[in-house]
Amino acid sequence: MTDRPTDLSSFPSFRPGRRSLLSARKFALMASVVAGLGVAVYGLGPSGGPANVFSTPAHAQVNNEVSKVQQPIGFADIVERVKPSVISVKVNINEKVAKDDGDDDLPFQPGSPMERFFRRFGGPDFPRGGGHRVITGQGSGFFISADGYAVTNNHVVDGASKVEVTADDGKIYKAKVIGTDARTDLALIKVEGGSNFPFAKLADGKPRIGDWVLAVGNPFGLGGTVTAGIVSAMGRDIGNGPYDDFIQIDAPVNKGNSGGPAFNTAGDVVGVNTAIYSPSGGSVGIAFSIPSATVKSVVAQLKDKGSVSRGWIGVQIQPVTQDIADSLGLKKAEGALVAEPQKDGPASKAGIESGDVITKVNGETVKDARELARTIGGLPPGTAVKLDVLHKGEDKVVNLTLGQLPNQVEAKADDSDNGNTSPRGTDVPKLGLTVAPAASVAGAGKEGVVVTDVDPKSAAADRGFKEGDVILEVAGKTVANAGDVREAINTARNDNKNSVLMRVKTGGQSRFVAVPLAKG
After folding, report:
1. Catalytic (active site) residue 100
2. pLDDT tens digits for 222-263?
């Protein structure tokens, strides 16, 4: 056999101009089988074996290009750029230890060889006679400026007597806490001993659900570690406080990642990792980050004065549920319902009353009570704001100047839907309440009627009523006895209302409850 190329045109079924005896599909199948067996269709090798068709420069180039296209996109370039800005934060916290009057539970005598042995090799301290002990904590953070300002979580440095940071290059620096904000769990620290630190930029815009994120931190004290995931949800409320507005991500975030940044693919910080949902203590792919917009606002105030001042209008608010919306004649369950304005607060002075619904702030729609709390809290005291309010069925505009949120007062949004669990569209039995004038019950005050008994199977029980609650209003009318309550309910029923709105005071706090009315 000669080493000349095989001429496919010599086969009758492959002669040019002649119809092939094989279909295109069968030919493709045969070609793939031949290629799989390692036989070159272009000819045989010098030794009679199959020729390697990818040995030519042209085919090698094509093969390399295909390989490049098929490789998964990585984050190495981004990580190389942003990782130096991330730091490990180590703190010492002095904890007071209660005095122990007896030595029976102590395993070793003070100063004994066994006690010294345990202390030397990391055994627990056995405090005697009270005093303090030092607890070591660890978290993450990141530089936001070249001169050493860095962001971490409040819970990482809260109560710290000593703060040290370890940079990505392994160098250790001392740091001091500039300011903290417990309500957003943010802290600003200043790292000493340098003036040209690599720093990260806080993103200007919000990420979108589905965007890639990279979480960089110090899990388990292992040093700088990177995990990747996507934005799973926005605007999450995890019950941390009235200003919850977390970004939910599915990048693994473990112990020690607290205070570390979540980067987007542009290398900007979109959030500060602060919490995880974990029944077991490890990452289950549900982590929460503080948005960069919140970080910018809080850090600016911490840097300027070491604390955060928030706007305050002086109202207790709650969500507008669908039942409440129906009772008020609203088309949508949106806005923030004013349960009670605080005496001498900005809202009260401006004429806002219980039962009003705040629908807009400076022309921006208020989706719910929590959004109102975040919006007002994000404005500095002294700011003039315009509120759109639904007042007794009519729209009006209220102008007021924000006060300063008191240290011990939260602009709290009551998120309970007050037992809104009974099936919709079904007949509801009688309210199941027994009431008495408040003036006749010691300690109940002089206004409204006191609930003295609740049928556990009633609509009122479903809505969270309990003995001792004081009903102040029913369907917008003040009530002083059981007859007033019955009259207001009958009026609402005659007006074809599906539910009646009651203002109820429990433990000094007011709320509105929409109670379904029985049919017929």
Report:
1. no
2. 777 899 999 999 988 776 666 778 999 998 887 778 899 999
Same structural domain for residues 110 and 245? yes
Catalytic choice (258, 348, 458, 499):
258
Q: What's the rounded Cα separation, in Å, for the pair 244 and 248?
A: 12
Which candidate, 336, 232, 320, places its Cα nearest to that of 276? 232
Distance between CA atoms of residues 266 and 212, nearest Å: 10
Residues 118 and 188 reside in one and the same domain: yes
Please spell the DSSP secondary structure of 13-74, one letter per residue: GG-TTS--SS-HHHHHHHHHHHHHTT--TT-B-TTSSB--GGGSHHHHHHHHHHHHHHSPP-
269 membership: H or E segment, kind and range? strand 269-276
Question: For the CA atoms of the chain, what is the radius of gyration?
Answer: 35
172 contacts 180 by C-beta, under 8 angstroms: no
Q: What whole-number distance in Å separates Cα of residue 356 and Cα of residue 379?
A: 22
Measured between alpha carbons, how far is 61 from 100 in angstroms, rounded to an integer? 78
Check residue 3 and report its DSSP letter: -
**Greater pLDDT, 12 or 224:** 224
Flag whether the pTM goes above 0.70. no
Per annotation, catalytic residue among 185, 245, 323, 414: 185
**Predicted confidence (pLDDT) per residue in 149-197, tens digit:** 999 999 999 888 899 999 998 899 999 999 999 888 999 999 998 889 9
Domain holding 482, by residue range, is 433-516
Residue at 1 is within a domain: no
452 burial via Cβ count (<10 Å: 0-12, 13-18, 19+): middle
Q: What amino acid is encoded at 341 in this protein? A: P
The half-sphere exposure of 369 on its side-chain side, counting CA atoms within 13 A, is: 23
Number of domains forming the structure of the chain? 4
Per annotation, catalytic residue among 85, 88, 140, 155: 155
**Among this protein's residues, is 258 annotated catalytic?**
yes
User: Comparing 134 with 24, which gets the higher pLDDT?
Assistant: 134
